[in-house]
Amino acid sequence: MESTTIYPGEVFTDTKFFDTGIRQLVPYYDQMLEAIAACIPHDARRLLELGCGTGELSLKLLKRCPDAHLVAMDYSPRMIKIAQSKLIEAQLNNRVTLIQADFGAWANEEINEQIKTDFDGCFSSLAIHHLDNQMKQNLFNCIRNNLSNGGCFWNADPIIQESEQLQESYLKLREKWTQTQGKTIADVRSLIGNSQPQGYSGQDRLATLDTHLSMLKLAGFKSVAVPWRFFGLAIFGGWV
User: Fold this and answer.
1) Where are the domains of the chain?
2) Of 83, 76, 94, whose CA–CA distance to 60 is shortest?
3) Predicted confidence (pLDDT) per residue in 215-240, tens digit
């Protein structure tokens, strides 16, 4: 068993349980990943992933974009190790550069790794909500500056909903979803670890969908969109 102290985003005490546990907690997790992958053009050549986790979305993007090279960043050595194993098994590791680093530090130009610019696409899932709003804005600014002309950014994350009624409905739906996976919310939550701040990330720091879209516009994205949403989960982003 791993240490009960974990980084934000690892969620579970044993990171090997992440792929199973996140599917038990997050409704339509796989559909969400498929949707964000579908937003990236097939002919993309250079991709950047922020908070790659166990590599589930990385694999989908590499298969969708056969000519792409992916730079994938995560601050968790445990997550990076799992992602690397999956990429090797899928024989895709030669198309990926894995970087153990904090994307918040990248946004503030505080890391030594030289990450080139002119990405055709940037994407993230269940990671950026760990930043406070000012850091979210800093990150969106940095992403904008590192995308090529016509490039796009898509983020799948939890959001603050527009009303307490919607939030109450969402919580009930989440509980029902977990039950359809053969578990209870209490069962799955008992496996969640004690998350400690890491770099610029901390406990959930959610924002509304409107706030995210306003931040993207302020960062200089020419158009923004919400291609997928399910109550408190949304994919949002845009083009430069």
Assistant:
1) 5-239
2) 83
3) 999 999 999 999 999 999 999 999 99
- Is the per-residue pLDDT at 112 higher than 80? no
Average pLDDT over residues 59-85: 97
Q: Compute CA distances 225 → 45, 51, 123, 217, whole Å.
A: 22, 21, 14, 11
Short-list 187, 70, 190, 204, CA closest to 126: 204
Fold held by 5-239: Rossmann fold (3.40.50)
Q: Pull the structure tokens for residue 197.
A: 């701040």
On the 0-12 / 13-18 / 19+ scale of CB atoms within 10 A, 158 is middle
Query: What does the CA dihedral 156, 9, 101, 49 come to, rounded to 10 degrees?
Result: -20
The enclosing H or E element of 70 equals strand 69-74
DSSP 105-159: HHHTT---S---S-EEEEEEES-GGGS-HHHHHHHHHHHHHHEEEEEEEEEEEE-
* pTM score: 0.95
